[in-house]
Amino acid sequence: MSHSELHSGDDLLALRSQIGRLAVICNVDMSHDDAVSRLLAGDYEHCHHHDREAELLRALLVLLYRLEASVSEDLGIQGLVALWQQHSEVLVRHGFTADSQPALNGSSP
User: Any idea where the domains of the chain sit in the sequence?
Assistant: First the structure.
């Protein structure tokens, strides 16, 4: 997937929006690396008995991080940071808080 395909489509926005919604349901603070790391390791203890949603959240995070790795090869790190910031701004305009998304340098699965 090229930068223009990723940037012009709604797929990344939809993915990040779904991650944000699931993080709220699962009570996972995506701004804390340790919370994301525990989730990626399969620790759903803090997810308030929403194991199915936590598993989906984990899978979507893995997908997001793999997409980031793939896109970063094409765009370079500066291009990836710019793209991440643009999508974060769009999410904020759609009502998601800035801390509802995983950190750019999130833990790798």
Answer: 11-100
